[in-house]
């Protein structure tokens, strides 16, 4: 009935209907408004028929199907055993779960070629992709999403997301300026400002004449320097403070004492933690500063994107030849991890995060730096593989029920108990040298002032003696 409401369909109207169909709405002349396309019974029936045909095509029974999946040995990812006829690891277990769920025969294939391959002039591919194009295998057990390979590969539903980082051992350093950094700059500004104001107020208040004082009481006037000196002594809670200074203005003196006590209490509340705390500091910020500011050697897996990045950036530059000598490309990722863990001060490592979690050792504390690329990890299958959608549906189901999280907890080193606990370290001279430096500078300044006072006193006495010798009073 709704279709009959459209009386005359011109070319222009047909174009409008096509656009509306894409957006899921259509103009209903009877109601003079746009309605959902599939709310019209004829279109709803047509949609159901098309969906049923497509699902019947996609959800084929994979019984008696043989799926050959290829990959190389990689710890906790794909590990071959039983004469290389079976696999385990996070990806290996996942393929067996797919085989049980979809009723197909899974045959793992081990290769020693760790390069995914590159396109040759004749259009063919080398490496693992070339084996898929020659129909030697139907799938790759683990692969990242790469746009430049989508003309020869299809990718299944994403399993997880991974980033490429540079991993390096952090240097745990003390904050040598803990005396100044215990308080924020604004707090220090207020402390110094109040110290100056209170000293000035005390100095100017004593200038006010007070007629009500008894005549026998002798008024002691302190200089501006005395006010600063004694106020500082009160705020530090140290030094001798004359009674006359306390009694001059008791309320002001009491306010200074309370203020100083609260400041010292706040300062000492975090003092021990700040003195003993070590903060991780990375020795460089990126690849360029790694080469310029450190002598570390960068380790990289030969099949990773850093290989092409470095060759494109430094390979054709004469000045970059020495930089390329500081990069070691290693064929096996596990060997790369063992190399850096055996000498963490000498090496840095370019690695993808999921493989780092799979291969990282508990005794090898490395920190990630930068994010040079990110990709989704999935399975690679032949182009136009008929069972790709079927595998996608199964993987989505595994993710929904939590199987992926369970496999990650089992095979990837991401558990909280693996985090290394920071041990308490004794306070050494390097942490408190600022205190001794202040004391040394104070002693040096005091000694300098003492020498100057003696020189001035010597010349004043010499001038007095000269006047007496000439008969001046």
UniProtKB/TrEMBL annotation:
<dbReference type="InterPro" id="IPR052192">
    <property type="entry name" value="Insect_Ionotropic_Sensory_Rcpt"/>
</dbReference>
<feature type="domain" description="Ionotropic glutamate receptor L-glutamate and glycine-binding">
    <location>
        <begin position="76"/>
        <end position="134"/>
    </location>
</feature>
<keyword id="KW-0812">Transmembrane</keyword>
<dbReference type="GO" id="GO:0015276">
    <property type="term" value="F:ligand-gated monoatomic ion channel activity"/>
</dbReference>
<keyword id="KW-0813">Transport</keyword>
<dbReference type="GO" id="GO:0050906">
    <property type="term" value="P:detection of stimulus involved in sensory perception"/>
</dbReference>
<keyword id="KW-0472">Membrane</keyword>
<dbReference type="Pfam" id="PF00060">
    <property type="entry name" value="Lig_chan"/>
</dbReference>
<keyword id="KW-0407">Ion channel</keyword>
<keyword id="KW-0406">Ion transport</keyword>
<keyword id="KW-1003">Cell membrane</keyword>
<dbReference type="GO" id="GO:0005886">
    <property type="term" value="C:plasma membrane"/>
</dbReference>
<feature type="transmembrane region" description="Helical">
    <location>
        <begin position="258"/>
        <end position="276"/>
    </location>
</feature>
<feature type="transmembrane region" description="Helical">
    <location>
        <begin position="432"/>
        <end position="459"/>
    </location>
</feature>
<protein>
    <recommendedName>
        <fullName>Ionotropic glutamate receptor L-glutamate and glycine-binding domain-containing protein</fullName>
    </recommendedName>
</protein>
<feature type="transmembrane region" description="Helical">
    <location>
        <begin position="188"/>
        <end position="208"/>
    </location>
</feature>
<dbReference type="InterPro" id="IPR001320">
    <property type="entry name" value="Iontro_rcpt_C"/>
</dbReference>
<keyword id="KW-1133">Transmembrane helix</keyword>
<keyword id="KW-1071">Ligand-gated ion channel</keyword>
<comment type="similarity">
    <text>Belongs to the glutamate-gated ion channel (TC 1.A.10.1) family.</text>
</comment>
<dbReference type="InterPro" id="IPR019594">
    <property type="entry name" value="Glu/Gly-bd"/>
</dbReference>
<feature type="transmembrane region" description="Helical">
    <location>
        <begin position="228"/>
        <end position="246"/>
    </location>
</feature>
<feature type="transmembrane region" description="Helical">
    <location>
        <begin position="6"/>
        <end position="28"/>
    </location>
</feature>
<keyword id="KW-0325">Glycoprotein</keyword>
<dbReference type="Pfam" id="PF10613">
    <property type="entry name" value="Lig_chan-Glu_bd"/>
</dbReference>
<keyword id="KW-0675">Receptor</keyword>
């Amino acid at each position: 009935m709704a279709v009959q409401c459209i009386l005359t369909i011109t070319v222009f109207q047909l174009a409008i209907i096509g656009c509306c169909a894409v957006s899921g709405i259509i103009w209903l002349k009877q109601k003079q408004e746009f309605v959902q396309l599939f709310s019209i019974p004829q279109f709803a029936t047509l949609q159901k028929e098309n969906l049923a045909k497509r699902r019947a095509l996609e959800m084929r029974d994979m019984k008696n199907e043989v799926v050959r999946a290829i990959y190389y040995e990689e710890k906790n990812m794909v590990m071959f055993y039983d004469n290389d006829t079976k696999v385990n690891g996070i990806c290996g277990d996942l393929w067996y779960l797919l085989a049980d769920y979809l009723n197909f025969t899974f045959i793992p294939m081990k290769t020693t070629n760790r390069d995914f391959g590159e396109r040759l002039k004749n259009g063919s591919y080398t490496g693992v992709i070339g084996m898929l194009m020659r129909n030697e295998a139907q799938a790759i057990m683990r692969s990242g999403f790469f746009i430049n390979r989508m003309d020869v590969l299809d990718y299944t539903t994403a399993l997880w997301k991974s980033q490429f980082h540079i991993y390096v051992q952090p240097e745990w350093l003390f904050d040598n300026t803990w005396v100044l950094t215990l308080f924020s700059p604004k707090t220090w500004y207020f402390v110094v400002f109040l110290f100056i104001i209170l000293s000035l107020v005390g100095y100017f208040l004593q200038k006010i004449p007070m007629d009500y004082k008894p005549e026998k009481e002798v008024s002691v006037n302190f200089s501006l320097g005395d006010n600063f000196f004694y106020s500082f002594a009160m705020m530090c809670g140290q030094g001798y403070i004359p009674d006359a200074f306390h009694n001059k203005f008791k309320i002001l003196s009491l306010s200074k004492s309370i203020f100083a006590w609260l400041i010292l209490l706040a300062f000492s509340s975090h003092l021990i933690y700040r003195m003993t705390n070590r903060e991780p500091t990375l020795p460089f910020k990126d690849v360029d500063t790694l080469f310029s500011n450190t002598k570390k050697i960068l380790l990289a897996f030969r099949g990773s994107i850093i290989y092409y990045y470095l060759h494109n950036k430094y390979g054709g530059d004469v000045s970059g030849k020495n930089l390329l000598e500081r990069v070691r490309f290693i064929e096996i990722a596990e060997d790369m991890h063992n190399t850096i863990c055996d000498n963490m001060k000498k090496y840095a490592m370019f690695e993808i995060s999921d493989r780092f979690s799979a291969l990282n050792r508990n005794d090898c504390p490395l920190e990630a730096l930068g994010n040079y690329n990110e990709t989704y990890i999935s399975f690679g299958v032949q182009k136009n593989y008929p069972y790709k959608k079927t595998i996608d549906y199964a993987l989505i189901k595994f993710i929904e029920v939590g199987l992926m999280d369970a496999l990650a907890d089992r095979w990837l080193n991401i558990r909280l108990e693996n985090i290394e606990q920071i041990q308490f370290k004794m306070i050494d001279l390097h942490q408190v040298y600022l205190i001794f430096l202040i004391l040394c500078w104070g002693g040096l300044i005091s000694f300098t002032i003492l020498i100057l006072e003696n020189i001035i006193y010597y010349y004043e006495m010499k001038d007095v003696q000269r006047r007496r010798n000439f008969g001046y009073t």
